[in-house]
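Researcher: Here's the sequence for the chain we discussed earlier.
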Amino acid sequence: MRSFNMRRIKSAFVAVGFMVLGALLADAQQQSRRVGTPPPTKPPLESVDISVLPDGADRLDLFLLIGQSNMKGRGFMPEEPLRNQRIVMMHMKTDEWFLARHPLHLVGSPKDFEGHDNAGVGPGLSFAQTIAAWGNCARIGLIPCAVGGSAISLWGKEGRLYVEAIRRAKLALGQGPAGRVRLRGALWLQGEADARAARLPAYPEALADLVDRLRADLDLPDLPFVASTIGEMREDTEDMKLSQVNLILLDLPNQRPNTSCVDARDLKSHIGDSVHFDTTSQEAIGRRMAAEYLKLTSR
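Model: Thanks. This is the structure I predict for it:
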């Protein structure tokens, strides 16, 4: 009997050992798929006063950029930063305003970029460039608020990311030229964090609630809300349902008026990790979001 028990104990230890080894191998595999985004170059950011409009602009149109890492952007940055007086951005950490350039979600110092993280090219800048090229006379102000890996719960009523986005939006409205500044829309790119089978059932209601709360808390009942599907560079698994998140996102216009969702499921190019869109795909998403926004606003 004792010999039998010893055999069972040894077998249990062997089984646990294989489980630990499997977990280590899986973690190593995940680490090998991670791709670093090159750091930003050519500091500093160029400061602007958004209370004063540049020549040719008659107003300041603001846009919230919200979501997780693909909205934040991980695409590799161009050699030269954009310098367009008509497109500006609020710094993620300091709330100061600068000429917009990649990475929009810079957390490092505006002077020397010290403290930057893996932010790269997202869809926000190509969105703004498309809107600016449409022939209107607005200066475009981008308010980056996305945080990598964030679940939609962090964008809930008391979620710290939602609270911060509302704070930054209201601050920007107060900083713009009096009587000539307005929040014109919110752009949403998020869903990977909620694609787990356990989280997925709550996603439709949480997404619709996010739209409702943004409009209520900013006193803009018709605020345009433009989402994008997340990447389907990987196949669905039993626990990860990327395609199901996308069906929920694509159904949003049926659930809330003055909303739209870009279908980016055809975009398969990524930075090498099968998760984050590359620069080409990100810029395509930004242009598609701009087209949907222009449809919603009948421009």
